[in-house]
Amino acid sequence: MPTFPTSPPSSTALGAAVAPEALALQRLYHWEGTEPGRIVLTQPLGGGAVRDYTWAQVLDETRRMAAHLQSLGFEPGSRIAILSKNCAHWLMCDWAIWMAGFVSVPLYPTLAAGTVRQVLTHSEAKLLFIGKLDGWDAMKPGVPAGLPCISTPLSPPTEGPRWEDIVKATAPLQGEPVRGGDELATIMYTSGTTGNPKGVMHSFATFGWSTTSALERVPMLRADARILSYLPLAHVAERTIVEHCLLATSMHVYFAESLETFAADLRRARPTVLFSVPRLWVKFQQGVSAKMPPDKLKRLLRIPIIRGIVRKKILTALGLQECRFAAGGAAPMPSELLAWYANLGLPIVEVYGMTENCGVSHATLPGVQRPGTVGRPYAGVQSRIYPASGEIQMNSPGVMLGYYKEPELTREAMTEDGWLRTGDKGQLDAEGNLRITGRVKDLFKTSKGKYVAPAPIEDKLMMNGMVEACVVTGANLGQPLGIVMLNAEAIARAGDAAQRAVMEVSLTAHLATINAMLDPHEQLDCLVVISEPWTVENGFITPTFKVKRKRIEEVYGAMFERWEGARRPVLWYPA
């Protein structure tokens, strides 16, 4: 049985294998020296105002903060946390932490106070950067008493020193201090759909290798690329695609200001590259459908003379008229959704990965969609299906060092021959493309002794304009149940009795259509419609918009048999 580290290793074969010039700090110094005047970050300031940052400006502030951090006397490798929404100073915090010789611990900006305390305590963070936040008052009680804090620009009012004052009073750190590829760079706490978050350790080399491999698959990510950063930088996908691809290519990163200004943020950035989770791609689609009925759009796109005009109008309204590479990940993309975007002239690449492998595992090829699959492995990635369980296992130089202070969990995550257990079930098609069929632990057995894989059924449920999120459950019931949460517009309509009746007819038809595609033991007994939002704050979803199945079953489980016994296709909760 191999052994796995619980703290930073002193050296690894991987660290030696990755070229030093591909590592994060070396890339920073490269751009500082070769393109100091290049604008690479655009930060909204509110009210339509923005501030552009050049490499020279970024490195000046980063060096000054790094010098301040070194002056605090922390031991090398100490953990320093970042609690902030995406912004220019999130990246500067990360780079200053690395430059000063420390390890960054990013926190999702939507965490409950209890989780904030858990992460800060478990990581033994010595200091916390507080940045742009919407719910600081609710999170503040989670910060341990006595933990030093530094507020960055755009942060809510906080006690303690401000970034601006420190930068003004501190001389820049001199020279080019670097970190070896084998050194621990960051501890990323997984949002997790069950249990407590685990601290995934990544080195500079795991990120360096993963970024290089990803860029081989995505040639559109280059110096002239523009990208809008809005998914949490605490998440591995945004960390790799935005932060590390920026360091690799010197592309232009725009930041979103808020949910309310998101459409304007997209139009400002006119991204050439956009990564989004399926839930947001569905929201974009629903926004278009609200203005143009889907049947009308289909008819217009069949007419050669006006097809191009319609496509351009819709994509321009979304701010995606110049998008060369669109991708979706973190959950399966329904084939109908992929087809809808392809008809608009914006084919979406499906990517598959997880925090434990830097998000770099499989992807479909640009312009070559394979609906229902996540394509083939990236260069340098090995994957296999374990016969006994159908679990997808993979190996690459981008696999984590382990879980911080959790040797037993680390051993459980790896096979005896050193491959990562993904926890996902999968199959390979005739071309070698990987199809995700669900989670190994999500399978449940009905009272008839038949196993049900919920994920493919959930994909079908999501293809209704009223559905925001869903779960298929029903262990030990006669048939599975579908539990669906309505989107905000549908929730508002459901308050009117007449509208609710119309919605119920539509959902009943949707259920019948889905059941007609399923085997008898998979067919849903009913749809339970939830009109109260599932949010990060109430614990039903993760910061990356994944529904917490365990939480759903804990809250609603006592009602499953009653719902099953109602013998109605659609039930409302609360009634």
Total strand segments: 26
Main sheet strand line-up: 11-12-13-14-15
The radius of gyration is 24 Å
Alpha carbon gap, first and last residue: 54 Å
Topology:
Layout: H1 13-17, H2 24-34, E1 39-46, E2 49-54, H3 55-71, E3 79-83, H4 88-99, E4 103-107, H5 113-122, E5 127-130, H6 136-139, E6 149-151, H7 163-169, E7 184-189, E8 199-203, H8 204-217, E9 226-229, H9 236-249, E10 252-255, H10 262-269, E11 273-276, H11 278-291, H12 294-301, H13 304-318, E12 325-328, H14 335-343, E13 348-352, E14 362-363, E15 376-377, E16 382-385, E17 391-395, E18 402-403, H15 407-413, E19 420-428, E20 434-439, E21 444-445, E22 451-452, H16 454-461, E23 467-473, E24 481-486, H17 488-494, H18 497-515, E25 527-530, H19 549-556, H20 560-565, E26 570-573
Parallel strand pairs: 1-10, 3-4, 3-5, 5-6, 9-10, 11-12, 12-13, 24-25, 25-26
Antiparallel strand pairs: 1-2, 7-8, 8-18, 13-14, 14-15, 16-17, 17-19, 19-20, 21-22, 23-24
Helix pairs in contact: 3-4, 3-7, 8-9
